[in-house]
Sequence to fold (160 residues):
Amino acid sequence: MINRVDFLKGVGIFKGLDTDSLNRIAAVMEEQEFESGGVVFDEKGTADALYIILDGGVDIFAKGSGGKDILIGKLIREEFFGQLSLIGNFEHLVKAVSQQNTTLLKLPRSKFVEMNKTNPQLSLRIVLNIFSDFLKSIQDNRDAFKYIIEYYTRSKEDFK
Fold:
């Protein structure tokens, strides 16, 4: 059996946390198993937890035109998703489906909120890591964002 604390040390969202903090997080996480093709969550469903891939992989889909699922990402061991659920009440913007038999660690928002009451510094560190990861994602995908904006702008002008 894997030591959760040692595993969590390699997960980016927990960067900078000490062993005591990681123990607190590990103690409230739930392990979930999904068979290949199992839906972790659907687009527009209530976002209520952070998920970390312990074993296996997860595909991320967004709805394209006509409602067809379009693969936009593939996640593997130690990667995480659903992190915005920790900081607010949101709907999922995407659908998450297991690529194969997959084991996830789930940190429910309710547990995160409880931790915040007793250890706000721990929660702040995690939120700062979420923000840092979000900014890095924007920088890494800057060209794609420019293309989308240009495409949207051109399309909007075509309808005038």
Q: What stands out?
A: The helical segments are 4-8, 19-28, 109-118, 120-140, 142-158. Residues 20 and 155 are 53 Å apart (CA to CA). The first strand starts at residue 30 and ends at 34.
